[in-house]
Amino acid sequence: MSEINYSKLYFRNDYHHRLWVAIMFPAPDACAEFGRWRTKGWWSVDTGGQAFVLKTIFRTAYFYAEAEDGAIWDGGPNAPIMYVTQSSFESCHLINTAGSRPVRVDRLNLGTGGAFVQPLG
Questions:
Q1: CA atoms of 24 and 39, how far apart (whole Å)
Q2: pLDDT tens per residue, the chain (121 residues)?
Q3: Beta 60-67 vs 19-26: how paired, if at all?
Q4: Which of 7, 22, 88, 92 could be disulfide-bonded to 110 (CB atoms 3.0-4.6 Å)?
Q5: Which residues of 15-34 are buried (b: 16+ CB within 10 A; e: fewer)?
Q6: Which of 7, 10, 15 is nearest to 73 (CA)?
Q7: In a 3-state reduction of DSSP, which class is residue 15?
Q8: Gap between the Cα atoms of 87 and 90, Å rounded
Q9: How buried is 77 (Cβ within 10 angstroms: 0-12 exposed, 13-18 middle, 19+ buried)?
Q10: Which of 64, 51, 62, 52 has its CA nearest to residue 21?
Q11: Alpha carbon separation from 31 to 3, 84, 115 (Å, rounded)
């Protein structure tokens, strides 16, 4: 029997202010009727800190981050959209709940397993 190669996604805060991270990742079963992608946020990451956010067999994920001083990390004007709320959330990609806002997400290639640390700074 072959061993599954999981990827573990971490975010490291190299920025000079606290930041918050939200992610979008494949969830073909849980979100089958809503775009097959799950969304989740927010992880608070202090300056110099790191947060574990996902363990997955899939190789692609997306993220959006914002800092307390207003700086953002996103995918630019043509990137996919994810809906986020101000408070913690967990949903599916195509569900736009009351009070949510659209953000553009940046793509991550998580490789073929192991730890993947995305620095933000």
A1: 4
A2: 556 789 999 999 999 999 999 999 999 999 998 889 999 999 999 999 999 999 999 999 999 999 999 999 999 999 999 999 999 999 998 887 888 999 999 999 999 889 999 999 9
A3: antiparallel
A4: 7
A5: beeebbbbbbbbbeeebeee
A6: 15
A7: coil
A8: 10
A9: exposed
A10: 64
A11: 25, 16, 25
Q: Give the residues across from 107 on adjacent strands.
A: 62
**CA dist., res. 103 & res. 24, Å (int):** 11
Task: Report the C-alpha gap between 33 and 94 in whole angstroms.
Answer: 9
* Residues belonging to the chain: 121
Q: What is the pTM assigned to this prediction?
A: 0.93
Rama region for 68: left / alpha / beta (φ>0; ψ in -120 to 50; rest):
alpha
